[in-house]
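Supplementary Methods S3. Complex input for the FE2/S2 (inorganic) cluster-bound model.
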Amino acid sequence: MCDCQNAYAELDAIILRHKDEPGGLMPVMQEAQNAYGALTMDIQQRIADGMGTTLSEVYGVATFYAQFALEKKGKHVISVCMGTACYVKGAQAVLDKLAEYLEIPVGSTTSDGQFTLQATRCLGACGLAPVMTVNDEVFGRVTPDQVAGILDKFQD
Ligand code: FES
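Predicted complex, serialized as structure tokens:
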């Protein structure tokens, strides 16, 4: 993110670049997400104002496309595979344990910004079911009892 006095300076520059372009909203949203990490409501409002559209239109696009995040992700992103093989082998119990341990619902981030917990589709490692990843690291045959130990490695 831009380290300037106006936290929106970079966003304003992005908007300016695409403002008069047909279909300019998508590139603005993509570049804004790259610059700020997420399209929070204040950023969406600024985009709507700058592009001469409504917040509801920007919000509609942001929620329709999976590539857009409305909240900043944590420093460490935990993904638990909920594909069939993992589900059958107990992924739900692992996911529940993580949510309990982190004290957050699935799909959200801890208040200290350390962890985001999400469920995901098949990760292509079904032989290791149930599978979870933390950032790029893969953990296979995970049991709920191992969850705390795995996360300890990533605590600051
Ligand atoms: S179902 Fe989980 S890795 Fe394939």
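The chain has two domains: 9-64, 76-152. The pocket of FE2/S2 (inorganic) cluster is lined by residues 81, 83-86, 122-126, 129, 131 (CB under 6 Å).
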